């Protein structure tokens, strides 16, 4: 999995690509989000458009990031989950937990 | 009985992508459409992770066996570990309200969601075996006909 970070004022967008799975993607996701929270970023959007699929460890790490963000008073939102990733969010009912956006501009102004 | 492919791997999470890729490729060869092949691979992936983590307790010396069998109507995969066994029936439903934001506990749920049948079995003194099965849907009539003309 690859992660690249862009800042739009107080909001940070993390463009993710590849797969979020055990032993690689889940660790990279954790490190990226932890680093942003440690820097004091409090508004984070994970752009999932380039993510092909996740396994249970990847989904678990997504939830862990959400909880860590909340503990630090930050908000973590999702942008453009597609195909299998969207299916997994529905299957696990996590679409009821996360704020999910289809339009980046709308996501950026939602904080 | 159809074609059989069997793998034996040490209990390493690093092998999970290999198992995933092999499952997806064999499922594609068995004429499953791409999304169904990914579903099977995701289910087998979870079974392999379970075998390594909960079955063999990450003991590198213990092996995980993955056996594939495919025929014209279905694709079956057995994943066997060498651990003391674990209680797969104790897993909570991750979709229950109180479990929604748990960071683990979705592996068996994923397995059951992505294939038609999942059967666990304790093999006394030998570990745990899980069998995953996905039925191959017959192609629609039009598709079968166009296939013959290719």
Overview features:
heterodimer; A: 111 residues; alpha/beta; Transcription Regulator spoIIAA; 5-stranded mixed β-sheet; 32% strand; globular; B: 150 residues; alpha+beta; Heat Shock Protein 90; 4 helices; 5 strands; 35% helix; disordered C terminus
Task: Describe the model.
- The complex is a heterodimer of chains A (111) and B (150).
- Chain A is an alpha/beta fold and 111 residues long.
- Chain A has one domain (2-108): STAS domain (Transcription Regulator spoIIAA, 2-Layer Sandwich).
- Chain A is 40% helix and 32% strand.
- Chain A contains 4 helices and 5 strands, in the order ββαβαβαβα.
- Chain A has a 5-stranded mixed β-sheet with strand order 1-2-3-4-5.
- In chain A, helix 1 runs parallel beside helix 2.
- The radius of gyration of chain A is 12 Å and the shape is globular.
- The model of chain A has no long low-confidence stretch (mean pLDDT 97).
- Chain B is an alpha+beta fold and 150 residues long.
- Chain B has a single domain, classed as 2-Layer Sandwich (Heat Shock Protein 90).
- Chain B has helices at residues 16-29, 34-55, 107-114, 141-149; strands at 3-10, 63-70, 74-80, 117-123, 127-135.
- In chain B, strand 4 and strand 5 (127-135) form a beta hairpin.
- The longest helix of chain B has 22 residues, at 34-55.
- The relative contact order of chain B is 0.18.
- The model of chain B is unreliable at 142-150 (pLDDT under 50).
């Amino acid at each position: 999995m690859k992660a690249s970070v862009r800042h739009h004022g107080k909001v940070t967008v993390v463009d993710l690509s590849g797969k979020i799975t055990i032993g690689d993607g889940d660790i990279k996701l954790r490190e990226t989000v932890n680093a942003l929270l440690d820097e004091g970023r409090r508004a984070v959007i994970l752009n999932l458009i380039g993510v092909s699929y996740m396994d249970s460890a990847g989904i678990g790490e997504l939830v862990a990031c959400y909880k860590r963000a909340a503990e630090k008073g930050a908000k973590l939102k999702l942008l453009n989950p597609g195909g299998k990733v969207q299916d997994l969010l529905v299957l696990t009912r996590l679409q009821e937990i996360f704020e999910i956006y289809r339009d980046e501009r709308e996501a950026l102004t939602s904080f | 009985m159809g074609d059989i492919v069997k793998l034996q791997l040490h209990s390493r999470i690093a092998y999970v992508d290999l198992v995933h890729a092999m499952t997806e490729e064999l499922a594609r060869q068995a004429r499953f459409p791409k999304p169904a092949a990914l579903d099977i691979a995701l289910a087998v992936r979870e079974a392999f992770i379970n075998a390594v983590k909960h079955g063999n307790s990450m003991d590198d010396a213990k092996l995980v066996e993955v056996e594939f069998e495919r025929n014209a109507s279905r694709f079956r995969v057995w994943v066997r570990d060498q651990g003391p066994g674990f209680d797969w029936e104790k897993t909570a439903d991750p979709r229950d309200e109180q479990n929604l934001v748990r960071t683990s506990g979705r592996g068996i749920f994923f397995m059951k969601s992505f294939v038609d049948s999942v059967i666990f079995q304790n093999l006394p003194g030998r570990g745990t075996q899980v069998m995953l099965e996905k039925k191959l849907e017959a192609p629609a009539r039009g598709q079968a006909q166009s296939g013959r003309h290719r």
